[in-house]
Amino acid sequence: MTTTQHARPTAPHSRTQHLVNVSGGKDSTAIYLLALESGRPYRAVFADTGNEHELTYEYVARLHERTGGPKVETVKADFSRQLARHREYVLREWPRQGIDDAIVQEAARLHEPTGNPYLDLCISKGRFPSRMAQFCTSELKETPITTQIVGPMLKAGPVLQWLGVRAAESAHRARLPRFNRHESGSMLWRPIFRWGIEDVWAQHRRHALRPNPLYAHGMGRVGCLPCVNCRKDELRRIADRFPAHIDRIRRWEDVVSAANKRRSATFFPAVTDPTDADRPGSYSRIDTLVEWSRTTHGGRQFGLFFDEQPGGGCASDLGLCESTPSSEDPSAAGTHTARAASMQPAFSEQPR
Ligand code: SF4
Prior knowledge:
The chain has helices at residues 26-38, 54-61, 63-67, 80-96, 101-109, 117-125, 135-154, 171-174, 197-206, 232-241, 243-258, 286-293, 336-342; strands at 17-21, 42-47, 72-75, 159-162, 179-181, 187-189. By secondary structure, it is an alpha/beta fold. A six-stranded mixed beta sheet has the order 3-2-1-4-6-5. Pfam families: PAPS_reduct (PF01507). GO terms for molecular function: catalytic activity. Residues 1-22, 317-352 are annotated as: Disordered. This is Phage-related protein.
């Protein structure tokens, strides 16, 4: 018997408004479908970080057509005010610090909002997020969902947020409660907390819904592409299958570097060059890391390079970012083929 059968929703309040957080990944899709099965009216929200794959945008935009559920609403963080504030600081303080005028003017020009939340956040902070400073989840997902959707809903009554978090995903997630109050005043509920990955696929099969196609491309998780919690093998697959996204990260590194005083910023900023053990402290740009991600055994390579870094995993109370597969998934330690196979539910009929 699967845990799926024990997860029927019970609303704590008759006026409760239900909000499902959707990332485009398998777990949040499972709770979207669970809410649909409950027969209650609900809203669904997706936070667009600006660092997502086009297949995820398409999957989220068409989820309602394929399931009969509500259209997923999209929110986006806006960093215009932070950029304007920091631009003023650059123009006022950098010349006093003796910084060359050409550099000041270039940095100030780059503080014009691009409209891409991830890039604008990094320009305004002068750096990319990292495992140790994972401000991306709160700034790009939690805050826009809270201010643009949850806050207005709370004015009409209690809000219950449904979260696609499972205990089996990570030790951190296993310590989370099934229910708790969020600082916004809403309640958080993790209805598939005890589900295994097979329950999640069974839920997709029950609705004849194909999961996000990124899993079929060998991605172990759906979310930012790449995510700061990306592992070595994931980075290699992204570079092999979606080189345009590596090109984008390279352009972003150029922009964020030119917009900050250090004239340096790397997407994975807290790591030294894994291909050059003789020069510890030299930070690695995306191309160096892609090159390293293709190394196998022998020579100078740091096999556990990313995995040894402290932090890791989405630390948000809301669990809005999908985790990299853990030991619960046979794919976690397996080959690309094994991972891709286990990331696909088997369908007995034609999926949508
Ligand atoms: S933790 Fe990863 S998926 Fe989540 S916002 Fe940060 S980069 Fe994106």
